[in-house]
Task: structure prediction
Amino acid sequence: GEKWHTSQTTLIQLYELQKEHFNAFDGYINAETKRLEELKNYLTEIYKWYDRKMLDKNPYCSHINGFIVMKQIQLRMRKINSLMINKQSADALKIINSDKDLSGDHVIFAIKGLVRLQKFYEIPVSDMVAGRHKGRNIGDQLNGCNYTTEINSSNETRYSEKDENYMRHVILMKNDVLLIDRNESKSSLDITYGLDANRFYEQCPFANKFKDLCTLGESTRTLTKYSKCRYQTKNSTHRLLMPFKEEDISDDPSIKIYHDVLYDDEIETIKTMSIKNMVDSRVVDSKMTGGNFNEKHRSGKTSRIKNIHGSLNARIESFTGRNTQTAEDYQIVNYGLCGHYMPHYDVFSKKHSLSRQFGNRLMTVLFYLNDVQKDGYTVFPMLNIVSPAEKGAALVWYNMHTSDGRDHQQSLHGSCPLLKGNKWIMTRWLYEEGQDLPYNWRKLQSD
Ligand SMILES: O=C(O)CCC(=O)C(=O)O
Ligand SMILES: [Fe+2]
Result:
């Protein structure tokens, strides 16, 4: 089933669920109290009857009386029997257990998340159990004894570092393909063979760089010669009064931030729309199944929205200067307990059929739906770029070279593990088809 810890939204529901449990407990206690009261009264009545009968000395003398006594005993025993069976506790337990329970597995998933976090940020166990990291409060005190016992019992699957790095990319790509096109999942699985193993191997050292940047955080965000901020009207007259606040982050590939492009009421609507159908951002693989492996690369909950409203499309087109007609559905992600996304590329393998319909994911438009302090950055490990989640802002970048359609190696990026709180994002991927590009992607793909 769906996991509790992968999204903060679900974790909040878990708290809510406890109210339901409390109601079940209360109902049970009331019913039990009533039942025991009834049983006590009934037994008192029977004792009295028995004492009276004993005064009769020999009630069995008359055959008729003997039968009456037998019959009364039988009826009373039946009633006592029914009063002693406690159906209420079974009913109450059913409510508590009905697939909403916190079975051992869920606790193990959560502890694995914490262990991952501890390893990633190299947090000493003493700090972990004290709920602090680098002078920052990250939670209440943990029972150190419980923590280490839980860790030992959550037997992690072992596999070599090399395999892990390679598989990470394969799996992430596959996952995204599967998400877009569930109906064509059969053909989507071919993506494994479309990847060039060596190419992805070579990027793996950046997992360490990713880690360093996540740890250093915003302190690494220095101004470079490309860094400029401006009010951008994009030649649109109605933007003269409310220009885009555009900030250059990188030149090659082009990465920019547009501040305040998504409004609070829109954000609330988007969250409400997506909460209903969120699923674990799972990574699917034919050989290595199971959640443990998957969550090492990505942990969060995802949902898709076909359309929000036309004016948002227009806004995106306005600040990106690109067409949204061939764009993918909006993808909303809520990261929960230790939520993260290890470095990956958003582009698909060229050989994959999906990238033929509209080309490939030329550009990523990533909206931040909340502010996140001190962690959960979007990081480009090959470019030394750390982007903090800023509510209402959009981080926009190219995954491909706009001159010839080659995948842009430096577009490698990921989301740093959350030490605390949660992160909401919404992405829109713009495709090559329908854009003004100096090359013909259809021709490139058939080569
Ligand atoms: O959450 C982030 O900052 C990055 C998300 C991302 O890379 C993706 O969804 O493809
Ligand atoms: Fe991505």
